[in-house]
Specification:
alpha+beta, OB fold (Dihydrolipoamide Acetyltransferase, E2P), Ribosomal Protein S8, Chain: A, domain 1, 5 helices, flat
Length: about 250
């Protein structure tokens, strides 16, 4: 398909195999959701326009500590399913629970960037902080986006989000669960642009449109006196580079 078309559940996509967001019947592919249809090498996909976050092993997500239990933390990851961070996956050091308070490490309301280490058949979600890029997020602001739009916000090899970081002098961490954390000089502009990308995620040539929008916004932005250059490369803030984003105007299922 040279142009994506809007489809609803049951719409015929073409003959061939069914990929993400589609199903097969008699060697034909049909849409399983409302979204944008795409075909690649005989495989039919549908990019959902909305929906809840479905946890997958290996995803990097932003979560909020909801409860502290014995040897584990309960974390809200913007999903219908409860996520648990075991003590053994949170730190490599030995912690004597008879002498140490677990809230010393993560307390109620703390924001963390964490990796999903496993998802059981019954949707028990286990988290891990062992990836070197996982950490606690201090300060900053949050914006929630549709999880299906996350690859577009990240861009290919992190290109889209890196452009927003550079032009607004902010740190941005994008969770695969549709939660985005922003901290820096021009947080309002960065969050406005992220919302713009979400709204126009289906548009071809979006990178150029976003760049022009940012340039116009930054012309009128007040100068900020700061000590830290948020544009400096920081591996801890670049976990989004580890996820595949789409090419210009493209999603990777």
């Amino acid at each position: 398909m040279s142009e994506r078309k809007l489809v609803i559940p049951g719409d015929f996509l073409g003959d061939g195999r069914a990929g993400h967001g589609a199903y097969e019947e008699d060697n034909n592919a049909f849409s399983a959701c409302i979204g944008l249809a795409e075909e690649k090498n005989g495989m039919h996909f549908v990019i959902p326009l909305s929906g809840i976050y479905n946890p997958k092993r290996g995803d990097g997500v932003i979560g909020k500590i909801e409860d502290v239990a014995f040897s584990r933390w309960i974390v809200d990851v913007n999903s219908p399913y409860e996520a648990v961070l075991p003590l053994a996956e949170a730190t490599e050091e030995f912690i004597d629970l008879t002498k140490n308070d677990m809230t010393k490490y993560f307390n109620f309301g703390d924001l963390i960037f964490v990796e999903i280490s496993s998802v059981s058949q019954t949707k028990n979600v286990q988290l891990s902080m062992r990836n070197r890029k996982c950490r606690k997020l201090r300060g900053g602001r949050l914006i929630k986006v549709t999880p299906a739009k996350v690859p577009r916000i990240i861009g290919k090899a992190g290109s889209m989000v890196e452009m927003v970081k550079q032009m607004t002098n902010t740190q941005i961490v994008v969770g695969q669960n549709g939660i985005v954390w922003v901290k820096g000089d021009h947080e309002d502009i960065a969050m406005d642009v992220i919302a713009l990308i979400e709204r126009k995620s289906h548009v071809h040539g979006l990178t150029d449109h976003v760049r022009a929008y940012l340039e116009e916004k930054m012309k009128n932005a007040p100068k900020v006196e700061h000590k830290k250059d948020y544009r400096e490369h920081d591996e801890q803030d670049d976990f989004d580079r580890g996820f595949e984003g789409g090419e210009e105007g493209d999603f990777q299922p």
